[in-house]
């Protein structure tokens, strides 16, 4: 079956760096998405990786290894507003999104 | 495994026809479901919140007479795009809120790709 795994919850300190991992097993691969979702709001798009390697966008970076079925989202210089859920989603061979359950990130002062 | 399903996965239709998309929660009962639209590499845009047994709540700018939502049971919400036009072509994603566990969780469906010719 198809499966996306990411940690349920993580805690980090303001100003620090945190890495949120995502592993996947899907039928085909057409890219991996990371979204940020604050409570009560719609998910906002953070990144899209379809080729191996690191994509950097400001304080956020996303890495993909297709051979390992693995991605991570790296958040630097953490701010209190980064407290949110982070969703990993893979687009399979039918262009359907397979969603992870999300990682709740708690930032402490 | 998937806990929220959508049907159909793909729809291609002629302009002027109506299209119904189903969203089902498979392992839990959901009093609240959400409908989103997504354009390529963009954020999900919330269209409406579907509440079981009552009228849906639509976001500003979303025509309720065009996008009919029916939350008939605790496991099923439907979105009907009435008189679809090419500009309605998009990726429609639903989600369902699971409030049964210790932590409230929102599960997303796989999406329905609509192409209006």
Quick overview:
By secondary structure, chain A is mainly beta. Helix content of chain A is 0%, strand content 57%. In chain A, the strands form two sheets. In chain A, strands 2, 4, 5, 9, 10 and 11 form a six-stranded mixed beta sheet that branches. In chain A, strands 1-3-8-7-6 form a five-stranded antiparallel beta sheet, with no helix packed on it.
Walkthrough of the structure:
The complex is a heterodimer of chains A (109) and B (117). Helix content of chain A is 0%, strand content 57%. Chain A has strands spanning 3-5, 9-13, 18-25, 32-37, 44-49, 53-57, 60-65, 70-75, 84-91, 97-99, 103-108. Chain A is globular and about 40 Å long. Chain A is an all-beta fold and 109 residues long. In chain A, strands 2, 4, 5, 9, 10 and 11 form a six-stranded mixed sheet that branches. In chain A, strands 1-3-8-7-6 form a five-stranded antiparallel sheet, with no helix packed on it. By secondary structure, chain B is an all-beta fold. The mean pLDDT of chain B is 90. The interface between A and B is medium-sized, with 21 and 20 residues.
